[in-house]
Amino acid sequence: MTSRELVFQTLNWESPRRVPRELWTLPAATAKYPTECAALTREFPADFAGIDGHARELAPTKGDWYLVGEYQDAWGCTFINIQHGVHGEVKDPLVKDWTTDRARIHMPREWLTIDRDAVNRDCAATNLFTAAGANPRPFEQLQFLRSTEELYMDLLDPPPALRAFVREMHDFYCAQLTGWAQTDVDSLRFMDDWGSQRALLIAPALWREWFKPLYRDYVQIAHSHGKKIFMHSDGFILDIIPDLIEIGVDALNSQIFCMGLDRLESFAGQITFWGEIDRQHLLSAGTPAEVEQAVRAVHRQLWRNGGCIAQCEFGPGGQPANVRQVFQTWNEVIQ
């Protein structure tokens, strides 16, 4: 069985022979533990592959997302980074006023110039489950452009120019995903970090008004082209998981230990839990025995002949032995 077949069986609750794997390793971890990271990759090879778009035109960026200093993204936002290996924050947002400052924003249409033939060749050359090299993030990108505080105020009393820009941005993201959906990749992805430690960052009703319709369109683009679609969000997002199931998200990467397995168990069999194991506490300060116990709890409460992916993030503070234990235990729970 190939990795591609394994992931599809997991997403479709078809009793795969083992749980598929995906390790996210941040530069902060590879810089601190290069030997250990290489060993993890050899011992537990990933079942997923991100596919490059081989864009014919490159969007303008400056600097490096993960290095100390300044980085300018493809939209024109400048991030200030004070720690190597993680990304920084925007301190001076481009948009002070949506009406007057729209011209300062670069819509990165270069992302639409993917080379479909090259993408298809890369997909044909691997037996891994492939993901498009695109990751729409409307809520976060709006924060980068406007600042979090000002955007929250805008959403409560929206200026017409904001609504116009959101429509423009959404059309762009839909065009990007449609272009990728017309290739041979297995899946599309999108993301937005929606939760604090204990609650959604905005009222669920406001989320449903502004962002649920955008995400529904992303899902429909994927499914209409026969693709699976994955979403990532950090934080406590329990209130919107039923909505994500309703619109058809196939797999959700979220901080399940932040929300609690008991609260999530009722969703087992309705959406695939694409990781993760607690990186706030367990992977950084726990023991391998505690990590093993946590993985077995996830399997017991969320696995339904599929519906779980052995994913975790190895970032700042993570301990190699704990990360290894995640994948070792997942290998053991299904025999």
Describe the structure concisely:
The protein has 335 residues and is an alpha/beta fold. It has helices at residues 3-11, 27-32, 34-43, 98-101, 116-124, 138-146, 148-156, 160-181, 204-210, 212-224, 241-247, 256-259, 261-264, 282-285, 288-302, 320-333; strands at 21-25, 48-50, 69-72, 78-81, 89-90, 129-131, 187-191, 228-232, 251-253, 272-274, 308-314.
Structural write-up:
- With 335 residues, the chain is of the alpha/beta class.
- It has one domain (3-56, 95-333): Alpha-Beta Barrel (TIM Barrel).
- The protein has helices spanning 3-11, 27-32, 34-43, 98-101, 116-124, 138-146, 148-156, 160-181, 204-210, 212-224, 241-247, 256-259, 261-264, 282-285, 288-302, 320-333; strands at residues 21-25, 48-50, 69-72, 78-81, 89-90, 129-131, 187-191, 228-232, 251-253, 272-274, 308-314.
- It starts with a helix and ends with a helix.
